[in-house]
Structures are given as structure tokens and as C-alpha cells.
Specification:
Chain B: It is a multi-pass membrane protein. Chain B: GO terms for molecular function: biotin transmembrane transporter activity. Chain B: The chain crosses the membrane at residues 20-38, 50-78, 98-115, 127-155. The complex is a heterodimer of chains A (238) and B (193). Chain A folds into two domains: 11-116 and 214-236, no CATH class; 123-200, no CATH class. Helices cover 71% and strands 0% of the residues of chain A. Chain A contains nine helices and no strands. Chain B has one domain (15-186): Arp2/3 complex 21 kDa subunit ARPC3 (Orthogonal Bundle), CATH 1.10.1760.20. Chain B is built from seven helices and two strands. Chain B has helices at residues 13-32, 49-77, 90-94, 98-116, 129-154, 159-166, 171-186; strands at residues 36-37, 46-47. In chain B, helix 2 packs across helix 4. Classes of the chains: A mainly alpha (238), B mainly alpha (193).
Chain lengths: 238, 193
């Protein structure tokens, strides 16, 4: 199971995507500025709170299991030394805190992903990044969401076809090549059809976006995000 | 009910085609994250994402290749499950893989610039194998330099420790990807022009 948007009516679902992005930025800054046991304890409560407000739980973190090996391995490698005393607890503890801080940032990000539909994210980008770069990002992100499942299926089909023809006996390099060639051909074919279709439908730089508006629920979220950023700035300032 | 009287600003044919290609390539790099192959030297399996970054530079050129990878990062940050193992979210862009991810657009631009020697893509048949390999080796250097530096900063590791965690087990697999990429570019099966 991967982490994805889940329709719902939680607090986080109802507030503006821009407030949620600000909270994430503030949280990341604060996590980097206060990487101490006490700071991270407070941020843990906040991170769990963010995920709960998005209606999420421990299940949603399963999507990040691939980050686990590096996060677990890093403190062990940092603590290990050649020669006496072989393992330095202080170095390992520093890196363990750093690893834990990443985990917390991922928890908050999971809350955003869970509670924000693509079109809201797109609108948030286009209203935050000015001009054509913002529009390029907005349109492009929408298209990536739309085509990712199709291309994933294309690649799986290609893999199964390679396997059905005894491709498992080939060297890894050749298997990579066969799967990638199939993927690229499908992607280009889809892109060219899409380009024509976009032109045929008057594809414009200024489409109509869903309305975004800050509501009552956004004020606490904006306050939390701004507060975290301020706290991080205070910690970093000389 | 408010009415908007803004006129429609159409996207040109060429730009629409490039945008479609950049978006589809970004989605392809994301789909590559789901294709795992056994790593010859480590139990951690390898995915094809980095291959996708190289190919974006090679097939789309330095400008649109880099733009495509920026789309990939933006989509991942906003929740498309395109990062390693199908993860997503802004957290990834400041987490332990931050260095690798931020280096991807630059690596695509570097690979594209070396292969095409200008901002506009040229015919790939005119590109020699040494140029292709050199471009991708340079791209690998960029990715791992940023990746290892990012790891050292984010997890407060020393340089040797960061290389142990973040590069030693993966570099041999990059050689396989470069070999596969040369095969792909030289393959007659690619219909792109």
C-alpha cells in the first residue's frame, strides 16, 4: 500500500493547501533547528497531532518503509570506530536524533499527502509561483499524477512479457534495457497523442482553477506554521 | 457570481509537445521507482530512477530534461507516490535522500549538455558512445557528490561514514545502468525523434 490522498472530512481536509504547506516548511525548519531530545519530544507530539488531524494513523507511515534501512543503519555506522572504544555512543546518539528528526518530518508530510487532492495542490502551486513557471509546474504536476498509474502498468506489462519469454536468464543490464525501452516508447507515444490532444482542446496558459480561500480553520494552521518558522529563526540567529 | 473577462492565452504547438513530453518523462521516472532489480553487490535492490534521470537529459536535452525532473520532484513533494519505494511528500526533499533528489535536475542538465552540446537536442545517431558514457559518468558524479554531502549534513555523519551508507553499495549498480542506457540509445526500437 502506498501513501495517497484519502477523501475525508477531517480538519486538515478542510483547510487551504497553502496553510498545510507552510506548516510543513515550518516543521522541517524547527526540526533542523531543535535537534535535541527535548525539542524532538515536543515536535513528536506536534507531528502525531498533524497526522491525526488529517485522519491518519500509523498505517500511513508504512509507505515510508523504504527510508527505514538508511535511517536505522546511519547511527550504527556513525557510532562504529576503528580501534578503541569500537563504538562511540555520543556519535551514534547525534545521528540517531538526526534520523528521528527525518522520521518526524515524514510523518507531517504524510498528513499533507493524505488530506490534499491533486487539484488543490496544483492550484496552490499556480497561485504561489508567479507567471509561466508556476503554470508549467501546475499543469505538469497534474499530468504526472494522471499518467503515473498508466506508465507503471506499462512497465509491469513489459516486465511480465520479458519474464514470459525466459528473460530472467538474461544479464541484469539487458533486462533493464528491455524494460526501459518499452517504457520510453510507451511514454513518448502517450506524450505525442497528449500534445496533439492538448492543442486540439485550446490548451491555455491560464485555465480556470478551483477557488482557494483561507477559512477560519486556516488561522491556527498559519499561526502554527509561522510560529515554527519563527522559532527556527530564533534558534539559528546568532 | 463574478465573471472573468481574461482572454485565453494559448500554448503554442511546440511548447505543448515539449510540455507533454516533459510531464510524461517525469511520470516515467516515477514509474521507474517501482521497477527493482537485484543489486550485484548488496542485498538492497536498485531501482531505475537514476537511469530515468540520465535518459531525460539524453532524450529531452538539457533544458526540457531538467524541467522534466523538476516536475518529478514537484509532483513527489505534493503527494504523487514517485520517490523510492512509492513514497511521497515534502519530507523527502529535506530528508535523508534530499541530496540525491535535488541533484537530479542538475544531473539531467549536465548529461543533456554534454550529449547535445547546446540547449536544443541534436540527432542522437551523431553522438558517439564515449560521449554518452562520459556524460553519464559525469551525471553519476554529480548525483553522488550531492547525495553523499546531503546524507552527511542531514544525518550528521562524517565523510567516510556517509560514503559507506550512501554510495558504496550503489555505485556498482550505476555502471549497469550506464551500460543499459547506452544500449537503449543505440537501440533501433526507440521511436522518438
Amino acid at each position: 500500500m502506498t501513501l495517497a490522498y484519502v477523501p475525508g472530512d477531517s480538519f486538515a481536509h478542510r483547510i487551504d493547501p497553502r496553510s498545510k504547506l507552510l506548516v510543513q516548511a515550518g516543521f522541517a525548519a524547527a526540526a533542523y533547528a531543535y535537534t535535541t531530545p527535548r525539542g524532538l519530544a515536543v515536535l513528536t507530539l506536534l507531528a502525531v497531532g498533524c497526522l491525526r488531524l488529517a485522519g491518519g494513523g500509523a498505517r500511513d507511515l508504512w509507505g515510508y518503509r523504504f527510508a527505514a534501512p538508511v535511517l536505522v543503519l546511519a547511527p550504527l555506522v556513525a557510532g562504529a570506530t576503528l580501534g578503541e572504544p569500537w563504538f562511540r555512543l555520543d556519535r551514534a546518539a547525534d545521528t540517531a536524533l538526526a534520523s528521528y528528526r527525518i522520521l518526524l518530518i515524514l510523518v507531517v508530510a504524510a498528513g499533507y499527502v493524505r488530506s490534499t487532492p491533486v487539484r488543490d495542490s496544483r492550484a496552490a502551486i499556480q497561485r504561489t509561483v508567479p507567471g509561466k513557471p508556476g503554470r508549467f509546474l501546475g499543469v505538469g504536476v497534474g499530468l504526472v499524477f494522471r499518467f503515473l498509474p498508466l506508465l507503471k502498468r506499462d512497465l509491469l506489462t513489459a516486465r511480465e512479457a520479458v519474464r514470459a519469454r525466459g528473460g530472467e536468464a538474461l544479464p541484469v543490464r539487458d533486462r533493464m534495457r528491455l524494460v526501459a525501452v518499452a517504457g520510453i516508447n510507451r511514454a513518448f507515444a502517450r506524450a505525442d497523442r497528449l500534445g496533439t490532444a492538448l492543442n486540439a482542446r485550446c490548451f491555455a496558459w491560464n485555465p480556470t482553477l478551483p477557488r482557494l480561500a483561507f477559512g477560519r480553520g486556516d488561522y491556527p494552521a498559519l499561526a502554527v506554521g509561522g510560529g515554527l518558522l519563527l522559532a527556527a529563526a530564533v534558534a539559528v540567529a546568532p | 457570481m463574478a465573471t472573468s473577462t481574461e482572454s485565453v492565452d494559448l500554448v503554442g504547438d511546440e511548447a505543448a509537445r515539449n510540455l507533454a513530453r516533459a510531464a510524461l518523462f517525469a511520470a516515467l521516472v516515477g514509474a521507474f521507482a517501482y521497477v527493482t532489480f537485484p543489486n550485484p553487490v548488496s542485498p538492497v535492490s536498485v531501482t531505475l530512477q537514476v537511469l530515468g534521470v540520465f535518459l531525460a537529459g539524453i532524450f529531452l536535452g538539457p533544458v526540457w530534461g531538467a524541467a522534466s525532473i523538476v516536475l518529478y520532484l514537484a509532483a513527489g513533494a505534493l503527494g504523487a507516490p514517485v520517490f523510492q519505494g512509492g513514497s511521497a511528500g515534502v519530507g523527502q526533499l529535506v530528508g535523508q535522500s534530499a541530496g540525491y533528489l535535488w541533484s537530479y535536475p542538475l544531473a539531467a542538465a549536465v548529461v543533456g549538455a554534454v550529449v547535445h552540446r547546446s540547449a536544443t537536442p541534436r540527432d542522437l545517431d551523431a553522438v558517439g558512445v564515449p560521449t554518452l558514457v562520459g556524460a553519464m559518468v559525469l551525471g553519476t558524479v554529480v548525483i553522488y557528490a550531492f547525495g553523499v554531502a546531503g546524507l552527511a549534513l542531514v544525518l550528521s555523519l562524517g565523510p567516510v561514514e556517509a560514503v559507506t551508507v550512501g554510495a558504496a553499495a550503489f555505485l556498482p549498480a550505476e555502471a549497469l545502468k550506464i551500460a543499459a542506457a547506452v544500449g537503449i540509445v543505440r537501440s533501433d526500437a526507440i521511436a522518438a525523434n
